Amino acid sequence: MTASVFFGCTFIAFGPAIALFLFTIAREPLRVIFLIAGAFFWLVSLLLSSLVWFISVQISNKESAAQQKGLLIFGVVLCVLLQETFRFAYYKLLKKANEGLLTLSQEETMPISIRQLAYVSGLGFGFMSGAFSVVNILADSVGPGTVGIHGDSQHYFLSSAFMTMAIILLHMFWGVVFFDACEKQRWWAVGAVVASHLVVSCLTFQNPEYVNSLVPTYVILLLMGVWAFYSAGGSLRNLKLCLTCKDKDFLLANHRPR
Amino acid sequence: MDLPSNKWIVHLLVCCFVVGVNCNSVDKKIYVKLNYTVSCVRLLNATHQIGCQSSLSGNVGVLHVLESEDNLDWVLSSGPNPPYMVILESPLFTRSVMMKLKSGSSRVAGVAVVAPNTNPAGAFSPHTTCPNENSGVYSETYDPAMANCNKTVWNPLGNGLSYEEFDFPIFSLKDDNDTQVIRQCYLDHNRAVNGSRPRYPLCAMQLYSLMFAVTDTATCMRRNDINLSINPEMVCDPLGDYNVWASTRPLNNTAKGHKMWESAVVAAARLDSRSFFFDIAPGAQSGVSGFVALLAAAHALRDVVQEAPPNRTILYTFFQGETFDYIGSSRMVYDMENNQFAVDLDNIHSVLEVGQVGLRNDSKLWLHTDPVSRRNDSVNKEVEDLIANLRLAATNLSVTPEVPTASQPLPPSSFQRFLRARPIPGVVLEDHQSAFTSRFYESMYDNAEYLNVSYPPNLTPEEQLRFVTESAKALTEVATLVARALYRQAGGAETQLVNINADSQTVTQMLYGFLVRTNNSWFQQLIPSDFMSHLTNRPPNLYVGAVQQSSEPTVLVQFLMANLTGSTVNVTQENCQNQREDENDKESRHMYIYMWVQGAVPPNSTQRQGFCVRSTARLSKAVSPAFDLREFTSKDYSTWTESRWKPISGRIFLVASHELEMLTLGVGVGVLLTSLLLTYVISAKADILFSSGREPTNATY
């Protein structure tokens, strides 16, 4: 296809992430640092899983299709587990770093709350994983052709872009839920995050039936979004207040010093 | 591969680790690369550019398989999805179709011609009707009546396509799986049923053949000299290679210029050919038949010129680049005039040229002469003698030499370049009386099949190599005639003539080597080991090519000439490769060429037994003097250059409709704007949204 497809897919995949970055992160140097650190942690997890994959492919029998399929499933599961492990490691690291920051800073409160950290690190994970999923496809979308000469669906680029958007947002929500669960030591919630990550990853085995993978993914995205909203301190009341524009009174009621 | 996911990521990384950049599975889902792509390339001369080219990023067009000439309407006016990439079956690759496409080139992205596996029944010659019109001897000053093929149109079937300029790429495809994929793709996606618009996605093709040079040789040679960077970017190269020459008596090649008491009979043939596409130039009739006959004649003369040497030397010359305004012969004549060659023009006694001799009707061979120089009595007498010698040589042979009408000019031949310098007596042997008999002059069909070099089925390559075909037998007769005539012309005794016989086995092996596959056991024995990698399982390309690239047939002919006329000498490999008989020998290199060839494998061994061949088969430069003189607008010498190009390739794929592309872009922009707006609102009201009693809202949110 052409440049229009390239830009269209880029905007779909990274539009929400870019907007979030611009309005909530770019202004705060500390958040930018934590975002990049999060992205780095995700990269390290990918490096480890690809090492394991590299070795296992060398060992496996390349002729046997069943074995290769099994290997692929194994690779996906391993990759998801490693990513979540690194999320936990990053959480631990941030806790330590936050304590250090607190002792350094002259102020009484922490310069960044653990909720904000959760959101920023989740977005960092999302950015990197989204980039790795879609950059190659985007590179090919600039060319004159579209997928389909071997009978595949021509909506490949579009659905890839939507999938990437979902994955980026999911990483963000997972980050919020995961960190909150760790804070409150609700291990079942951590398990739910890992499980939903596994489910979303395995849903892509449904491809090229894109509807079968995209629809459940977006359902999970919606659920995770609601959950993350509540874990981040949101509530139906707040939402109502916000929508009915009673925030002015609310502001006064909370007498925030500005 | 499927959608982006972790498995995809893992796969991508593995790909990068293991295979490198090429393992891009998305690319494979989109594109089918064409394996066999032969393009037409751009050539330039003093005034024109010819050939084809694509745009910088390759030309993309929707496939259209042209079924008949009427079908052109769809491409040129009525089709709804221009530009079109036109797939032509070879019967439609005609001048009228191509010119219509050329004139409507805003709707034509390119053309791919499907080359058939068997030759067509009709005629096809993309060359001009009057080959080398302006560079032969027949100019307005020489004889106005004969200029520009006024008397005889030599190639009446020529449609001149090779000399047209197209601003879209033209490729040749083999009729195989690739082409089947293209046809299927066309049928599945692009075929308009009952005149309705075909629905997207449509099947399309992209052809890359970007040419660097434009306008003419003077322009591109000037651009070659602009050195803006450390690595100068060349845009074009002169056409040229090497002539092969040998003599029956060794001539001192270090002392150039006139040789006292030396008188030479030149036996000439041309080495090259061309076709519309640069990579396929089999030239069976136009090139191979002539030089194989001359090689066989030289072989037949090997022993007799040692045992009963004639008075004169026979100088065998094989000219390269003759198709492009006589590059090889004009250079040799130029060198002779400027004392840059082992002999000069005063040493030349007469010329006997072997032209196209592969297709003889009624076993006749036509002796063409130049009527203008024969107006001089002394020249005329020499020519009459030469014709008499040829007639004498033909006794007891099944070949009958005949003389066409005396007023007919010479056909396109290297001898014309000698005549341009001075009136040397000479004869050109051809299989046609006036116009060419060849139906496929300078086309890709001028191949083994056209020359009737065919073998019974179920023969192994080794058996095919040894099998004496009828064409080989016929060509052997011609070779014998040439050999005997040369011997007589050089002043040899008439009694020796019966001992001169060309070997049909050698001829058939040469035909096999040059028309079927160069990689055969016989050629392998005759070449040095470092040339082995150049042998292939297909016939060599006789297109002369740019100077920098050595032309395969040239070197092969030199090796064959060395082996067929030279002698095996007992010299060590080291001395042989240093061009000497022994450690103290410093003189032999001026007279001989030594080659260490790899030889055959003895029956009870696995190692080849190499040996040293001493011969007079040398190479001499075949680059047009125009490039040495830097006269890029020369009217006397060939000015052909070949443009440089980016790698030539082609691929097919589907294209999506403009609507879908715009939809994607629109959705993308929509998503971006919505998320910008939403994020702005949420982040502005974050403190309300995410406020709970437990954690105090932070000023930073």
UniProtKB/TrEMBL annotation, chain A:
<keyword id="KW-1133">Transmembrane helix</keyword>
<dbReference type="InterPro" id="IPR009294">
    <property type="entry name" value="Aph-1"/>
</dbReference>
<protein>
    <recommendedName>
        <fullName>Gamma-secretase subunit APH-1</fullName>
    </recommendedName>
</protein>
<feature type="transmembrane region" description="Helical">
    <location>
        <begin position="117"/>
        <end position="139"/>
    </location>
</feature>
<dbReference type="Pfam" id="PF06105">
    <property type="entry name" value="Aph-1"/>
</dbReference>
<feature type="transmembrane region" description="Helical">
    <location>
        <begin position="213"/>
        <end position="230"/>
    </location>
</feature>
<dbReference type="GO" id="GO:0070765">
    <property type="term" value="C:gamma-secretase complex"/>
</dbReference>
<feature type="transmembrane region" description="Helical">
    <location>
        <begin position="6"/>
        <end position="25"/>
    </location>
</feature>
<feature type="transmembrane region" description="Helical">
    <location>
        <begin position="159"/>
        <end position="179"/>
    </location>
</feature>
<comment type="function">
    <text>Potential subunit of the gamma-secretase complex, an endoprotease complex that catalyzes the intramembrane cleavage of integral proteins such as Notch receptors.</text>
</comment>
<keyword id="KW-0914">Notch signaling pathway</keyword>
<comment type="similarity">
    <text>Belongs to the APH-1 family.</text>
</comment>
<comment type="subunit">
    <text>Component of the gamma-secretase complex.</text>
</comment>
<keyword id="KW-0472">Membrane</keyword>
<feature type="transmembrane region" description="Helical">
    <location>
        <begin position="186"/>
        <end position="207"/>
    </location>
</feature>
<dbReference type="GO" id="GO:0007219">
    <property type="term" value="P:Notch signaling pathway"/>
</dbReference>
<feature type="transmembrane region" description="Helical">
    <location>
        <begin position="32"/>
        <end position="59"/>
    </location>
</feature>
<keyword id="KW-0812">Transmembrane</keyword>
<dbReference type="GO" id="GO:0016485">
    <property type="term" value="P:protein processing"/>
</dbReference>
<feature type="transmembrane region" description="Helical">
    <location>
        <begin position="71"/>
        <end position="90"/>
    </location>
</feature>
Automatic annotation (TrEMBL), chain B:
<dbReference type="GO" id="GO:0016485">
    <property type="term" value="P:protein processing"/>
</dbReference>
<keyword id="KW-0812">Transmembrane</keyword>
<keyword id="KW-1133">Transmembrane helix</keyword>
<keyword id="KW-0472">Membrane</keyword>
<dbReference type="InterPro" id="IPR041084">
    <property type="entry name" value="Ncstrn_small"/>
</dbReference>
<dbReference type="InterPro" id="IPR008710">
    <property type="entry name" value="Nicastrin"/>
</dbReference>
<protein>
    <recommendedName>
        <fullName>Nicastrin</fullName>
    </recommendedName>
</protein>
<dbReference type="GO" id="GO:0007219">
    <property type="term" value="P:Notch signaling pathway"/>
</dbReference>
<feature type="transmembrane region" description="Helical">
    <location>
        <begin position="662"/>
        <end position="682"/>
    </location>
</feature>
<comment type="similarity">
    <text>Belongs to the nicastrin family.</text>
</comment>
<dbReference type="GO" id="GO:0007220">
    <property type="term" value="P:Notch receptor processing"/>
</dbReference>
<keyword id="KW-0732">Signal</keyword>
<keyword id="KW-0914">Notch signaling pathway</keyword>
<dbReference type="Pfam" id="PF05450">
    <property type="entry name" value="Nicastrin"/>
</dbReference>
<dbReference type="GO" id="GO:0005886">
    <property type="term" value="C:plasma membrane"/>
</dbReference>
<keyword id="KW-0325">Glycoprotein</keyword>
<dbReference type="Pfam" id="PF18266">
    <property type="entry name" value="Ncstrn_small"/>
</dbReference>
<feature type="domain" description="Nicastrin small lobe">
    <location>
        <begin position="39"/>
        <end position="213"/>
    </location>
</feature>
<feature type="signal peptide">
    <location>
        <begin position="1"/>
        <end position="23"/>
    </location>
</feature>
